[in-house]
Write a structure and sequence with these properties.
heterodimer, A: mainly beta, 7-stranded mixed beta sheet, 4-stranded antiparallel beta sheet, about 0% helix, about 50% strand, B: mainly beta, 6-stranded mixed beta sheet, 12 strands
């Protein structure tokens, strides 16, 4: 039974470059979430999918950010024209849920450093 | 608005001491869920417990126990006889049930250091 997988685990990029992170959720999970965590803070919600539909986006998700889950399985989070303020850990989580009552299962995160 | 506050930023104890991590939440919802997660240095958030708003019974799991008090909007976590392996960042989180999104609102986290 594999957990949530994220890659790359670490990404160092120069300001202005585009980066893409991938998340593979637990296979039977229909919901997938992206969170951002900065140093010393708790994770902050960015967006979530139910199957392939993106149902909610946080106002934290500027128009430089785009997330997809094309076949309702893996998801990608792309950041265009990266800025130093984008440096953070990007966490993916999944659940099999329709009520909001279940725990989320998290991956180990993708750490982004923008120079 | 929903909010979770963990007032203790860092706690340091010596092994075998008991330690309590505080969590206070705010919500207008009558139905909600509360969670605790552990984040070790590897970064992965590990689920510890889920409690719904209608169940105020305290829960014990080995050295871990949780005290849920609706009257004070608190959901505190106690580790008995702490061990070095308990060193991690602990997060309390709130789920908004009526919105049905399943998304969690996290507190700022408490870093626990257990010294040998």
């Amino acid at each position: 039974d594999t957990g949530v997988s994220q890659n790359p685990r670490h990404k160092i990029t120069k300001r202005g470059q585009n980066v893409t992170f991938r998340c593979d959720p637990i296979s039977e999970h229909n919901r997938l979430y992206w969170y951002r965590q900065t140093l010393g803070q708790g994770p902050e919600f960015l967006t979530y999918f139910q199957n392939e539909a993106q149902l909610e986006k946080s106002r934290l998700l500027s128009d430089r950010f785009s997330a997809e889950r094309p076949k309702g399985s893996f998801s990608t989070l792309e950041i265009q024209r990266t800025e130093q303020g984008d440096s953070a850990m990007y966490l993916c989580a999944s659940s099999f849920d329709g009520t909001g009552s279940r725990e989320l299962f998290f991956g180990e995160g993708s750490r982004l450093t923008v120079l | 608005a929903q909010k979770v506050t963990q007032a203790q930023t860092e706690i340091s104890v010596v092994e075998k001491e008991d330690v309590t991590l505080d969590c206070v939440y705010e919500t207008r919802d009558t139905t909600y869920y509360l969670f605790w997660y552990k984040q070790p240095p590897s970064g992965e958030l590990v689920f510890l417990i889920r409690r719904n708003s209608f169940d105020e019974q305290n829960e014990i799991s080995g050295r871990y126990s949780w005290n849920f008090q609706k009257s004070t909007s608190s959901f505190n976590f106690t580790i008995t006889a702490s061990q070095v392996v308990d060193s991690a960042v602990y997060f309390c989180a709130l789920s908004e049930f009526p919105s049905n999104t399943g998304k969690l609102i996290f507190g700022q986290g408490t870093t626990l250091q257990v010294k040998p």
